[in-house]
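Quick one: structure for this chain?
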Amino acid sequence: MAKDELVGNMATETILSFLKSKGVAPDLNYSEFEKAIKLAEEIFPH
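Got it. Here's what it folds into:
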C-alpha cells in the first residue's frame, strides 16, 4: 500500500480537461464520454 499522503484518485474528466488545455487530449469521442458520465451518475448517485 502506498504510504504517500499525496496518493489519491482523480476524476477522469479532470485529467481530460487538463490534457485538452495542454493540447495533448487523447482521441476520444467526448459526446459518448459525457453520456457515460451521466449514466454512471444515475447508477451511483452522490
